[in-house]
Amino acid sequence: MDAVVRQTGRIIPWVFPHLQGRSAGVRRQSLGKAWPTACKRAGVPGRIPHDFRRTAVRNMERAGVPRSVAMKLTGHKTESVYRRYAIVSDADLREATQRLTGTISGTVASPKVDSRLATMQNPSREALAQPGRAPAF
Question: How far apart are alpha carbons 116 and 119 in whole angstroms?
Fold first, then answer.
């Protein structure tokens, strides 16, 4: 890229400009070859641009960046589409429940929960009511 800047005498604002020939420094119309090559060189072959967009959204959510700011940075125009990228992992859910433990009257500071329940999306009342488990709601 530095060679293209020296060759053209101007700053190239594109991430993937043409690097050779008469089109050197000009924006590519398609990322057909450039994207897979860049991912392979970066050690993350097979990724698509949306993988990185999703990662950026998740990182901003975890960092507490205001949603309106995150949406501007990622180019999302509607919250409904933004939320599709804000994927919540099991680890996020576990961390949230650990943060809330003890904040509600009558809860214990460090509950002993069966690890199988911690990974269940919607445990049944019967599963929760078993001895040694959290109380049923």
Answer: 6
